[in-house]
Amino acid sequence: MNQRGKWQLILMAREGDRHAIDELFYSSFRPAYLILSAITGDKQASLDILAEGYVQIFQHLDTLETGDGFDEALNRYTIDRARALFPSREYLRLADESRVFAADFRHDPPQLHDFDTLPAMNLSARADEILAIMHALPVPQQVCAYLYYYIDLAPETIADILRTAPDTICGTLQQVRQSIVPQIDSVLKKSIAFRGTDAESAILWALRCTQTNVPAAGETEVYYQSLIEKLVACGFLEASSAEEEEPIIDEIPMQDIAPPKEHKLLHAIFSLRTLIIVLSVLVVVGLFVGVRQLHKYNERRNRIHTASERTTLSLLATAFPSEHYIFSTEFEAPTEPEATTEEVTVTETEVPTETTATTLPTETERTEPTSPVITTTKPYADLQRSVHGNAITITGYTGSSNSPVIPDKLDGKTVTAIGENAFANSNISSIRLPNTITSIGKNAFRNCSSLQNIALPSGVTTIEADAFHGCSALRTVVLPSSLKQLGSQAFYACYSLTGAALPASLTTMGNSVFYDCKSLSRCTFDANPRLNALGDATFFNCTSLESFTVPASVKAIPSNCFSGCRSLESVSMPASLTNIGQNAFLDCTLLSSVKFGSGLRKIEASAFSGCRSLDEVTLPSGTTGIGASAFSGCTGLRMITIPASVTNIGTKAFDGCRNLVIDCPKGSVAEQYAVRNHIELANSSDVTYNDDTNSE
Questions:
Q1: Residue 166 pLDDT > 70, yes or no?
Q2: Who's near 343: CB < 8 A, 6+ residues apart?
Q3: pTM of the model
Q4: What is the 3-state secondary structure (H, E, C) of 509-523?
Q5: Residue 359 has pLDDT above 50, yes or no
Q6: How far apart are CA 455 and CA 250, in angstroms?
Q7: CATH of range 379-513; options 3.40.50.300, 3.80.10.10, 3.90.550.10, 3.90.1150.10
Q8: Neighbouring residues of 212: CB distance < 8 A, sequence distance ≥ 6
Q9: Strands 648-649 and 383-388: what pairing?
């Protein structure tokens, strides 16, 4: 079962997202390598074929239609290449007599469990023992086992890849079960940590945890870097500094992963050249730093000289008040201080507002002597800003305080916005914003990893994309009742965020707003919300989210909205909701209660795939379609009620639902589907239908 929502990763990888490419590689490399290693028996040949396969698959990501298609396409290509490169050795021939075991396998297929909690590092020796048992199998049986247990491909798909009949694959898997299960059971009994673990699930665990049957971590990193270079060369990725682009690679030559050997003399010449370049850079940097320090020294000296002159003039004005002295304009006292000039304040007396140049009074007009006090520090100088009429946007912060305070006015103008990237990557732990703020710009607080809490002012109406992206320490956030727009990935990867309350005023919500917020256990909406739709992948991989009530105004749950929410137990949907998108609740393994609204019309592909805790589902009258694999892998699903309004049921809609009973009207499309796929009906009927009747 796809545990990371690979479809979302594929969509991101199509756009050149390196993180998505990394995850696709590391999630598929180990099983693909083990398969090729079993076929070829040659480590280097396996790596070469696999590199060629990755380049081909990444170049054609747009042809994939599901997340599972990545692993399937990769293994299909690499196995074909191995077959072509080693034609004289019939590694993949399966015995036809294995078909006799197919019925037993179909009657009692294994129920695999994903044991993430087993201490893999302490039990790696047990993993190697289990794999040693599998390696003793004939190569065709090994390949079938890897494709079935680790990559989770259906027997029909494996049969297509290995160019044989599905019955042969089922029979081979049954033979694998009979030959290795007793041996694996004996290994599991050696450790108390495996108490209650079935043998076939232990195979999945062993494949993930082996340390000796795959390249070491450092070797894998080097290999992956060479693969990235190939992806850059073929034009799939853009190089950060590439002089020329090489032509697109159709096939990668074998044995090209290891770096070429260099002649010692050439190596010495290049090393000397590198040393000269480094020394030249150091000299240039040294000169630059020296000139800059000299410039700072001259500035400091000029400031001291200016201060000395000011002190002398002040003393003269005090000692000889009857004399006239001409001051420069820097001693003027304007009626309203400007943010771009130094501020002057005069004590004990009031300076006339019409004065443009400060002069000493005559004997007859003289009042008490005064001393000008010069203020050289500009208020809030650490806040960078831009001015738009009477409004100011904060665009940057250069201060050292971890708790800055933003005033409501600067230079006599109102502060209304926090601009794009204003505090990005800073070390602030808290911030005080004035009530005059109405918008938070794109990336405004991105990667502020020390920011723990923030109270947004009551006037904020817009939070733009990625505003708090990567604020991993952010625990609480108060969204104001004035908020209308919440941008894409606004709280992406805020790992410490535990709760969020969305106001009724919210009308627009971008994609992936709470993506990967692993501590988010609750998210609520105020009464009478205005939001019409959640964004794609809004709560993707929010593994602590336990329940959710879809707002009454929402009309659709988009793709991947709750994918990977493994703690989600219940979902309530309003009557306004008409569509549940692709992979919407993929791998919500604890989801046991789903209450559909009366307005539901369609459930898209893989919407509830892997929700193995679902027990009973009732689709409302008016529902018209159930997508492909919509409830596949829902191993706990016992009963589903399907109305007569359903006119289309996709392929493998209930694949893996071994104990399922369908309750539906007689003569309906659902009844035809159940008969054709050998699914039990609540009201048993002797009616049979021709196989050419197609509702899928």
A1: yes
A2: 337, 375, 378, 379
A3: 0.49
A4: ECCCCCCCCCCCCEE
A5: no
A6: 55
A7: 3.80.10.10
A8: 124, 128
A9: unpaired
- Give residue 339's pLDDT: 41
Distance between CA atoms of residues 241 and 76, nearest Å: 34
* Rounded Cα distance, 423 and 402, in Å: 11
H or E element, residue 662: strand 661-663
Residue pair 408/390 in contact by the 8 Å Cβ criterion: no
> Tokens in use for 454?
């923030």
Q: Where are the alpha helices (DSSP H) in 189-263?
A: 199-209, 217-233
Name the CATH superfamily, with its identifier, for domain 532-696. Ribonuclease Inhibitor (3.80.10.10)
Q: Are 648 and 624 in contact (CB under 8 A)?
A: yes
Residue 273 is predicted with a pLDDT of 75
Residue type, 6: K
What DSSP designation does 256 have? -
Q: What is the pLDDT of residue 269?
A: 64
Total residues belonging to the chain: 696
The three-state DSSP-derived secondary structure of 290-337 is: HHHHHHHHHHHHHHHHHHHHHHHHHHHHHHCCCCCCCCCHHHCCCCCC
pLDDT digits (tens, 9 = 90+) for 55-77: 988 888 888 877 678 888 888 88
Cα 660 to Cα 178: distance, rounded to the nearest angstrom? 27
User: For residue 411, with 0-12 CB atoms within 10 Å meaning exposed, 13-18 middle and 19 or more buried, which class applies?
Assistant: middle
The answer to whether 542 touches 522, Cβ cutoff 8 Å, is no
- As a whole number of angstroms, the distance between CA 559 and CA 66 comes to 12
Q: Are 611 and 585 in contact (CB under 8 A)?
A: yes
> Which of the residue ranges 9-13, 217-221, 257-261, 316-320 would you say has the lowest mean pLDDT?
257-261
CA-based nearest residue to 216, from 19, 43, 48, 20: 43
Give the Å distances, CA to CA, from 407 to 383, 388, 413. 10, 17, 10
- The dihedral sign for the CA sequence 155, 156, 162, 167: positive
Residue 563 structure tokens: 């994918």
Sequence-distant (6+) residues with CB within 8 A of 154 are 652, 655
CA–CA distance, 334 with 273 (Å, rounded to integer): 61
Sign of CA dihedral 493, 486, 536, 624: positive
pLDDT digits (tens, 9 = 90+) for 596-616: 999 999 999 999 999 999 999
Q: Quickly tell me which residue has 């994939």 as its tokens.
A: 64
Which candidate, 458, 462, 501, 502, places its Cα nearest to that of 480? 458
Terminal CA-CA length for the chain: 22
In the chain, count H helices and then E strands: 13, 26
Q: What is the pLDDT of residues 83-129, one digit of tens each?
A: 888 765 566 777 766 777 777 777 766 666 555 545 444 566 778 88
